[in-house]
Amino acid sequence: RALVVSTENITQNYYNGTNRSMSIPNHLFKVGGAAVLLSNKAKDRRKAKYKLLHTVRTHHGAQDDSYECVFQQEDNEGFVGVKLDKTLMKIAGSALTKNIEKLGTVALPLSEQLKYLWVNHIKRKRSKGPSESFKPYVPNFKKAFDHFCIHAGGRGVLDAMIENLSLTEDHLKPSRQTLWQYGNTSSSSIWYELAWMETNGRVKKNDVVWQIAFGSGFKCNSAVWKSMKNNSKVHLCWTTDPEEPLLHRSYKGSFFEDEDEATRADHEVETAEELFDSHMGCDAMKSFTKSFTKSRARRLKEDALLKKGK
After folding, report:
1. Three-class SS of residue 33?
2. Which of 32, 35, 56, 298 could be 222's S-S partner, Cβ–Cβ 3.0 to 4.6 Å?
3. Does residue 184 register a pLDDT over 60?
4. How far is residue 136 from each of residues 54, 116, 122, 184, 285, measured CA to CA in Å?
């Protein structure tokens, strides 16, 4: 047996300096955690809720830009923090593409694999037109998976998954609920999402669940599970009691039922400020700027007192 713990603990990496790009994780991430017990013992089969079918791990750590896009370092004042580079979204997209391509070869039905091979490889080579005008075939992942647990890293991440994989809002509801209620708890968010599905009685026997999460390095990992029974456990983190949900704050991008296509923000992240805003919103950005200004003013005052004392 193995106990696997997935967690995000921003406390130990809290940044006390004044570098804005390194201050983003203070406001972007939230403390969260989940644990699962895995077993390969035959006697545990009757107790098991899920059977692990596939795992796919993509790691681009050998590339400098991928390795440094989420990086712990010291600033000029000697404060340690985590810097999020503006290339993060582009690198995440590249890792996601590689991971999905590999996963498709083991998880997709044969008909979808043949379509992908024919259109994206054979037909593309035979095409005489410009490569830019060629429209690649995107496999129908809904034929392979019944439920989707997607890393709740922000609105941009979830919107991109809907668009690129042709998913529906109902497929992304567990992810948006998790982002709404708990914020970005990093890779542990996929377990909050699975718990939400179970609490709402969505997972039935023989259903297939796809979990996909990201991490520094840069990494993108997938796990595919088959439900061994009807799972309708009410989890503590999703109870309706007012004391139980740890957070009641709404995060920008969790839901947009009242928005139309014309008002959706462009989530192409170009700067650290836009990266922050795509996750938290303008109000949070103003709050962040205010706290940053106060922190800087306090430091200047402390430095002045120290110089005066000398």
Report:
1. strand
2. 56
3. yes
4. 25, 8, 11, 32, 38
Rounded-to-10 torsion of CA 161, 163, 166, 172: 50
Among 159, 191, 157, CA closest to 174: 191
Round to whole Å and give the CA distance between 177 and 185. 13
The pLDDT tens digits for 151-178 are 988 888 888 888 888 888 999 999 999 9
Pairwise CA distance, residues 81 & 275, whole Å = 17
Residue 217, C-beta contacts closer than 8 angstroms, at least 6 positions apart? 59, 60, 61, 66, 67, 70
CB 204 within 8 A of CB 269: no
Distance CA 188, CA 176 (A): 14
Nearest to 63 by CA among 85, 81, 40, 82: 85
Work out the number of other CB atoms within 10 angstroms of the CB of residue 52. 12
Q: Rounded distance, CA 55 to CA 39, Å?
A: 15
Tokens of 310: 């000398």
Q: Cα-atom radius of gyration of the chain, to the nearest Å?
A: 22
Residue type, 21: S
Q: Beta partners for 58?
A: 220
CA nearest neighbour of 278 among 256, 257, 252: 252
pLDDT digits (tens, 9 = 90+) for 31-43: 888 999 999 999 9
What DSSP string describes 142-210? GGT-SEEEE----HHHHHHHHHHHT--HHHHHHHHHHHHHH-B-GGGHHHHHHHHHHHTT-B-TT-EEE
The torsion angle over the Cα atoms of residues 91, 97, 99 and 102, rounded to 10 degrees, is -150
Position 259 scores a pLDDT of 45
Instruction: Give the Cβ contact number of residue 258 at 10 Å.
Output: 6
Amino acid at 141: F
Q: Give the Cα separation of 129 and 185 in Å (integer).
A: 45
CA distance 74 to 121: 46
